[in-house]
Amino acid sequence: MTSSKTTSGTALQTLIRANFKELLRDSRSLISMSVFFVVTVLVLIALQAMINGGGSTPRLLLTDTVESKITDQLDAANGIETSNEASGDAAAANAELTREGSGAGYTVVISSEDRPDWLRIVEALESAGVPHSEITVVDDEGSPQIDFLRQNLSLALLTGYAAIAFVGTAAPFARMRNEGVMTMLGTTPVRARDILIAHAPPRILMCLVETMIVLAIAFFSGYMHGGSWPRLIVSLLLAFGFIFSIGFLLAARAKNPDLVTQLAGLVPIIVLFGSGTVIPIPYLSDVPWVRYLIPTNWMADAINLDLSGIAPTLPWGLLWALMVLGTVVLFGLSIRLFKWTESDT
Prior knowledge:
5-stranded mixed sheet, alpha/beta, 345 residues, disordered N terminus
């Protein structure tokens, strides 16, 4: 028994080293795994600039319903001009801050004609201790205003994870199956579990780099007010495990590497349409459960809670449980259904 475990452990270490060397030599695969993430980040930044950029200086009217501590914080904020209902310059305001009552959230109403940079107002409110979930921004026609980058930053991360899991994990297995490499490995003591796990370490490092880039964007954009770092780390780890369990399941059966790559290209589209980006979340308030039919929203909402300060519809503990359950089931299936050759059943 001990000899068997030692042999298995040695084989796993050998496979991990071989995967590192192969990935470093294969620049094409590195580019393929990274391009989805890079393009998604650049597109989100460009759309943010187009949708929310270029606003005028906020001239904020503070109504009597706003507490004095919030008023003082906004008065001291850089780049925001404030006034109150009693001042003579209230008519020149292009934004208004109100609160319905004690314990209620804050509503910022902006002018649709003289559109201000309302992101500054939101940042100032969060700096004053107001949770992002208690801030609503609408224009004077009642249309909700969305921080496009903030709401979809987790999308870029999940897209990057999926590309690494599909293009960088499932596609190589399909290629090895076509070339007969898996047939040869099937004659060795290597187990299916070991060969799947051996692919993870170098790809974990790539996911770590992408995660650090997204965290830096969120931090310098002022999105991470009051977030829990330990909870965010756990959410990221669970999302990584869940996506890679899907990649492992594809790797267990995939025969066509080109088909796997095309599937990876569909992931951003699926996430985009299901996350509330194309159909803003407020319009889905009557049927919020529809979003959770798409598992990527479990991950996005759990991550957004601390990455962007956006409260999920479901409790974060339940989202964690769904991801753990999905990871265990999918990884178990990937081992159970693993094929060494195309002729295996």
